[in-house]
Automatic annotation (TrEMBL):
One of its GO terms (biological process) is gene silencing by siRNA-directed DNA methylation. It holds the Pfam family XS. InterPro entries: FDM1-5/IDN2 (IPR045177), XS_domain (IPR005380), XS_domain_sf (IPR038588). Residues 51-162 form the XS domain. Gene3D superfamilies: XS domain (3.30.70.2890). This is (rape) hypothetical protein. It comes from the Eukaryota.
Length: 248
């Protein structure tokens, strides 16, 4: 009983239990994220022409612009303003960057999402919402934009990435990379495996220390027990024969 109480109160024991729970919870959370996305990821994304840009990015076009008073440059909503507007619409971007060219605000923007499974889920929901609303990439390329104030948006992919002739392609080439969902899943699986191995090593080291502490405590308990028994014998002899325990 005393050994158990000592170990439970030891910081190493608490840390060991935390590491076990943390590793299990982390892997479980990532697995659930992957499972929730399985039904939403088109198989076409594994094709070389449909690889999305990673970290996950969306493209926003048809942003209203207007010329400044001097008539030399266009202005429009800033990145933070566009981000707030997208959040109000129910999306979850981490940043929006407006694209500027030699004429000023180009009326386009890059929507950035988290680089993990949650970010991919947010990016796919972003793409799906505009696509189902008739304001996706195909709608824009087929002559969209009649309504000046309505955004068109899609998930940046291979086609956008290799458009080096425009500012969007140039930005995507500098700040991102093409990555299929299957490749991303493999990389995340390797990261999870390395994390589990590292946490297991830490846990084993802590368990080894706990065993040493338990062994030390056991020896101390035995020694204390022997000393207590010896003391009891001396006191018993004193009580029986009237001997002075100090003299003994």
């Amino acid at each position: 009983m005393y050994s158990y109480q000592l170990l439970v109160g030891d910081p190493s024991f608490v840390q060991s239990q935390f590491l076990r729970k943390f590793s299990t919870a982390t892997i479980s959370k990532r697995s659930k994220s992957l499972a929730s996305l399985t039904g939403d990821i088109p198989l076409a994304y594994d094709d070389q022409f449909e690889k999305p840009v990673w970290p996950w990015k969306g493209i926003l076009v048809n942003i209203p612009t207007k010329k400044r008073h001097d008539g030399l440059c266009c202005t429009g909503e800033s990145g933070p303003q566009l981000k707030d507007e997208l959040i109000r619409r129910g999306f979850n971007p981490i940043r929006v960057r407006t694209v500027w060219d030699c004429f000023g605000h180009s009326g386009t923007g890059i929507v950035e999402f988290n680089r993990d499974w949650n970010g991919l889920n947010d990016a796919l929901l972003f793409k799906k919402a505009y696509q189902e609303d008739g304001h996706g990439k195909k709608d824009w390329l087929s002559g969209g934009g009649a309504a000046y104030s309505i955004f068109y948006a899609w998930l940046a992919n291979t086609d956008d990435y290799y458009r080096a002739a425009n500012y969007i392609g140039e930005y995507l080439g500098k700040m991102g990379d093409l990555k299929s969902i299957s490749r991303f899943a493999e990389e995340e699986a390797r990261k999870d495996h390395k994390l589990v191995v590292r946490l297991n090593v830490i846990s084993e080291n802590i368990q080894s220390r706990l065993r040493m502490l338990e062994e030390k405590f056991s020896k101390t308990s035995i020694k204390l027990k022997c000393e207590t028994e010896e003391k009891d014998k001396i006191l018993h002899g004193y009580n029986q024969g009237g001997l002075n325990p100090i003299a003994m």
